[in-house]
Specification:
- The complex is a heterodimer of chains A (267) and B (257).
- Chain A is mainly α and 267 residues long.
- Chain A has ten helices and no strands.
- Chain A has a single domain, classed as MetI-like fold (Orthogonal Bundle), CATH 1.10.3720.
- Chain A starts with a helix and ends in a 13-residue tail after the last helix.
- Classes of the chains: A mainly alpha (267), B alpha/beta (257).
- The interface between A and B is medium-sized, with 22 and 20 residues.
- The site of adenosine-5'-diphosphate has 12 residues of chain B, from helix 1.
């Protein structure tokens, strides 16, 4: 890696991080009195208590593994369902007209209100958490798929019409490839939402093996702020990991032809 | 008089009115014989693209009859309409793929037409890496792969600079001389129309119909310097006059292009 790349790519986020940590220390050590420091322990205390102490670390890592599993399963289900629904909508206007309003509705409904219903039907275990995750992550996949499948231009469609291409040929050779950028962006948003969904679902259902959400709730109740912040940090890292993985996928599949144009913002 | 089976396409009193009530063409009559190169010129919005879409079957006529001899059709749009995720080679083989031509045969033909349009060596490039002229060459190549008998071209060189356009015109003439297709070529350049065509058809403003035509007697192949002969200028100004009359004298058609 060249020095220039180091400077333009990695320096800005590093500076931002330093500023953030600086502010954190400022609040912990200067703004808060010693007897109220438990409200925001400094970063080194968080690392020490939550991550370096093996007794505290074990439940955190177990929670992380569980939430990551819920997020992954939920994401995969949302991806398959969302792509299927979006594709169905793209094939017939009546499907789009009848389903899209409810997809938007689903996006807006407060999941909290559904928790008792979901719990009643699916018990308060992993299935329910996955369902909450799917509900939260589904919409961007549907809209990304639908928008993407409709993004091929008229001339390209005409070309296929001239050669009497079937619906399936049209989908495979034109619509899906041109949908990829929007579809993958939708999946990327869905991946981060799946992490949110997994943690939030956990918080709601509170039973069974504790995931990150249950831990957060527990640490909050016990005023164990170091562990609370540690758990939140792990959830963030999980989301960032999901986002980055999808970013890699995007670069690998469409990097060669999409967005090949330069960034036009002033430097 | 040519025999009836020499007629490649015949439009009789053709009209096309869109659902919003816009009449793009009305009472349009046109006959093109096998082996002719016919250019269509007319004010913008007069229904030239619609005419090609009617001939290709992409759109139905709302009046009159459109008869096209059964033949292999090539259609080149104003935009190159290449698929950005495919390389030049994969773009050029697209139509052959749709027609179910086996892979080996496709690749053989692709290599041949890339050579024909001067894109040898660019097969692995993506469209985004090509200049406008090269994209248009790729688009031409894509149609040529199927060896069209009737070639519809909708202002294919309209977006290119003059130098590139002239060079592609020279190559178009060479292609036409070698490949013996029938061409219906829409353009807004009078010089391009006269240089390429055996006949230039002039349309009225919308709703478009034929208001006149000029036969261009020069034999093919046509050398580039033909553009500077007095006879060429005479034919071009006849086309311009027709256009000006059709447009009620308010167009600024230039003979140069
Ligand atoms: N699908 C459509 N619906 C309504 N009007 C249309 C449609 N397509 C073309 N037109 C109109 O028909 C006229 C002729 O269009 P077109 O054939 O594209 O003209 P040209 O190619 O000569 O510029 C224009 O006024 C255009 O706005
Ligand atoms: Mg047009």
């Amino acid at each position: 890696m060249s020095l220039a790349v180091l400077r333009t790519r990695w320096l800005p986020p590093a500076v931002a991080l330093a500023v953030f940590l600086g502010l954190w220390y400022l609040v912990s050590d200067v703004v808060l009195d010693a007897d109220r420091r438990f409200l925001l322990p400094p970063p080194d205390a968080v690392v020490e208590v939550a991550f370096l102490d093996p007794v505290n670390r074990a439940p955190l890592l177990r929670g992380l593994a569980l939430s990551a599993t819920v997020a992954l399963v939920g994401f995969l289900v949302a991806a398959v369902l969302g792509i299927a629904i979006g594709t169905a909508m793209s094939q017939a206007r009546w499907v789009e007209r009848s389903l899209y309003p409810y997809a938007v509705f689903l996006q807006c409904v407060p999941i909290l209100a559904l928790v008792p219903v979901i719990g009643f039907w699916f018990d308060f275990g992993l299935t329910s958490r996955v369902i909450v995750t799917v509900l939260i992550a589904l919409f961007p996949v549907i809209s990304g798929t639908l928008f993407g499948l409709q993004s091929a231009d008229r001339g390209q469609h005409d070309l296929l019409s001239l050669h009497r291409a079937s619906r399936v040929t049209r989908l495979l050779k034109l619509q899906f490839p041109s949908a990829l950028p929007a579809l993958l962006t939708g999946l990327q948003v869905a991946a981060t939402l799946a992490v949110v969904g997994a943690v939030v679902g956990d918080l709601f259902f509170k039973q069974g093996t504790p995931g990150i959400g249950v831990l957060i709730d527990m640490y909050r109740a016990r005023l164990q702020t170091e562990q609370l912040l540690g758990a939140a940090l792990l959830a963030c890292l999980l989301g960032v990991a999901a986002f980055s993985l999808l970013g890699l996928l995007i670069r690998a599949t469409t990097g060669g032809w999409h967005g090949a144009t330069a960034d036009h913002r002033p430097r | 008089m040519p025999a009836p089976d020499d007629v490649m396409l015949a439009l009789a009193s053709v009209g096309r009115t869109f659902v919003d009530g816009t009449a793009a063409v009305r009472d349009l009559n046109l006959r093109v014989h096998r082996g002719e190169f016919v250019s269509v010129v007319g004010p913008s919005g007069c229904g030239k693209s619609t005419l090609l879409r009617l001939v290709s079957g992409l759109e139905p006529a709302t009046a009159g009859t459109v008869d096209v001899a059964p033949c292999r059709l090539g259609y080149v749009f104003q935009d190159p309409t290449l698929l950005p995720w495919r390389t030049v080679t994969r773009n050029v083989e697209l139509l052959a793929e749709l027609e179910g031509i086996p892979r080996d045969e496709r690749r053989r033909r692709v290599a041949q037409v890339l050579d024909l349009v001067g894109l040898t060596g660019f097969g692995r490039a993506r469209p985004a890496a090509l200049s406008g002229g090269m994209r248009m060459r790729a688009s031409l190549a894509r149609s040529l792969v199927l060896e069209p008998e009737l070639f519809l071209l909708d202002e294919p060189f309209g977006a290119l600079d003059e130098l590139t356009r002239e060079r592609l015109n020279d190559e178009m003439v060479a292609l036409f001389t070698d490949s013996a297709f029938t061409a219906l070529f829409v353009t807004h350049s009078v010089a391009e129309a006269v240089f390429l065509s055996s006949r230039v058809v002039v349309l009225s403003p919308r709703p478009g119909h034929v208001v006149g035509e000029v036969t261009v007697p020069f034999p093919y192949p046509r050398p580039g310097h033909l553009r500077f002969t007095p006879e060429f200028g005479r034919l071009a100004s006849r086309v311009s006059d027709l256009l000006r009359d059709a447009d009620g004298g308010n167009a600024d058609w230039t003979v140069s292009a």
